[in-house]
Write a structure and sequence with these properties.
A hairpin with a 3-residue loop joins strand 2 and strand 3. By secondary structure, this protein is of the alpha+beta class. The radius of gyration is 21 Å and the shape is globular. The chain has two domains: about 230 residues, Transposase IS200-like (Alpha-Beta Plaits, 2-Layer Sandwich); about 90 residues, Orthogonal Bundle (Chromosomal Replication Initiator Protein Dnaa, Chain: A). The chain is built from 15 helices and seven strands. Helix content is about 50%, strand content about 15%. Helix 2 runs antiparallel to helix 3 and helix 13 packs across helix 14.
């Protein structure tokens, strides 16, 4: 039985998009209001939702590359170093539903079914997907330029003064230049070109309604399903485990920066570059949550881990020597990752909501 047959059996016979979670997975996530009703009625609602994004970014160690809040739906592009999309999205949507129902004196479901999550090939499609997300308000006739829409991450990409610490600008901007200034300018031109040329949706290349990527990416992802008979009752996800050991990361950093590993784990020393680099790599490669990383480094609050990560990202954009150091360590840590193994678990019961993308 081929992977294509299994995949299509899952998708079309079972009628349920698959969920694949693994460390470093990147998703385009959308969630629409029940019966296409508005889920944001005023700016207070929008600020609350953005606060939830920041909270889950800090607590769960997710990387939010971009977002836009529309009237009856939202878009997120989120990367999960911890392979924890389901936990994150359940927390965001359920908490916001409770807030919305209390604040607007209503009861019942706010969202139409569960969220839609498309697995995205980062290297091949993240730039296109980010532009697609940021152009939503323009296509809806709400603004004439995407950076003028307040409830989007686009202003922070174009103007330094509009950056927020919980949005991951670095990867996208780095594709356009070595400095943030050049990256912001070129990215603004890239998005504007989409307005002028009526850029096609990247999702025209979607495979099976759940994957967006090159052939190699799609084949590798289908491989996570495994060549086994399909259950009529349960769609099983595969979680790809491939983490680096925290102690190995600390040892690598200590060796590179000629310091003692134990010193990196002790609380204190705000300007301890080695300690901050170790936390940065831990967030990317260990699979630990920010809370667990904080405990490893002497009992830091999870928000301190998140802020340290954001500060280092910013410094890397300004300091070529620091960037080269971290990139070299990232290559080293990549070599420490164990070969992927597959672990079955967690029944999925996601229904196709039919929400547009």
């Amino acid at each position: 039985m081929t992977y294509d047959f299994i995949f299509l059996y899952f998708r079309f016979i079972m009628g349920r998009p698959l969920r694949v979670e693994y460390p470093g997975a990147l998703y385009h996530v959308t969630s629409r209001g029940n019966e296409k009703r508005d889920i944001f009625l005023d700016d207070r609602d929008r600020r609350k939702f953005l606060g939830l994004l920041e909270e889950h970014h800090d607590r769960h160690g997710i990387l939010i590359h971009c977002y836009v809040l529309m009237g009856n739906h939202y878009h997120l592009v989120v990367e999960t170093p911890g392979g924890n999309l389901v936990t994150v999205m359940h927390g965001i949507n359920s908490t916001y539903t409770g807030y919305f129902n209390r604040g607007h004196n209503r009861a019942g479901h706010l969202f139409q079914g569960r969220y839609s999550a498309i697995l995205v090939d980062k290297d091949a499609y993240l730039l296109q997907v980010s532009r697609y997300v940021h152009l939503n308000p323009v296509r809806a006739g709400m603004v004439d330029r995407p950076e003028r829409y307040e409830w989007s991450s686009c202003p922070g990409y174009v103007w330094k003064s509009r950056e927020v610490p919980w949005v991951e600008y670095a990867w996208v901007l780095s594709q356009f230049g070595r400095s943030r200034r050049v990256g912001r300018e070129k990215y603004g031109e890239f998005v504007s070109a989409g307005v002028q040329q009526t850029a096609e949706s990247p999702f025209r290349d979607l495979y099976g309604q759940v994957m967006l990527g090159r052939d190699q990416f799609i084949e590798q992802t289908k491989g996570l399903l495994g060549a086994r008979e399909v259950s009529q009752e349960i769609v099983e996800r595969k979680r790809l485990m491939g983490y680096a050991e925290p102690e190995d990361i600390v040892s690598a950093v200590a060796s590179a920066l000629q310091t003692e590993a134990d010193l990196l784990k002790r609380k204190g020393g705000r300007n301890n570059t080695a300690r901050r680099v170790a936390m940065y790599l831990m967030k990317r490669y260990s699979g630990l949550s920010n809370e667990e990383i904080g405990q490893f480094f002497g009992g830091l609050h999870y928000s301190a881990v998140s802020k340290s990560y954001a500060r280092l990202e910013h410094e890397m954009g300004q300091n070529r020597e620091l960037r080269s150091l971290v990139q070299g360590l990232m290559s080293h840590v990549n070599g420490l990752l164990p070969k992927a193994v597959f672990k079955e678990g967690f029944s999925a019961h996601h229904k196709n909501t039919g929400s547009d993308r």
